[in-house]
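Quick one: sequence plus zinc ion SMILES, need structure tokens.
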Amino acid sequence: MDLTKAELDFLKQKGLTKNDVYNGLGVKQKYWMSLVKKEGKPIALGNPCTYEKHRLKWPSGHCAQCNPRNIGKGFSDRFSQTKYIYIAGSLSHKVMKIGIGDDPEQRLAVLRRQPYAGVPDWQLLFHMKVPNSARLEHEAISSLSKHVVRLGYFKDGGKQTAIEVIKCSYVDALKAIAKSAKTAESDPWQSPKVGLYEFK
Ligand SMILES: [Zn+2]
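Reply:
Sure thing.
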């Protein structure tokens, strides 16, 4: 996906990056409008607008550059919330989960009880409180996208949604977070057991 300098500048102004852009080029607008939301992206690259041939669009389909104030409010709020980002790991399935929440210990108890993705032995390996938590989560998981695997589905109001976990070692998950994290509001916490989660 090639973005022009003007497009990159616009994204930067909005606190977004190239990774936030859903590539809807060559896809009919009504299709990418549903896909962009499903993928949780705040902005899409679509067909040029009538007036200035801009290509960046809000999920509503409106030209982002002609309507710069029309930022998806829900997205910007959610992306910028300060929360904990955490890594949980499973020895039985050799997978990682990167997630965010207000209370990682409690979140882990819920994952184990469900059990999330059918994995019974989630252990909390790392957490750190960060601003822009959802953005960081999104960037970290995107950078590991080739290791993402599906482990089952959950029903979401009748709709089935894939449960995705990451087939990688702890260090890979940690590196993905470290690469995107710019600031933290708490010291990172790391489990003394992380050495067990280096899968070959
Ligand atoms: Zn425009």
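The chain has two domains: 5-75, 81-197. The first strand starts at residue 21 and ends at 23.
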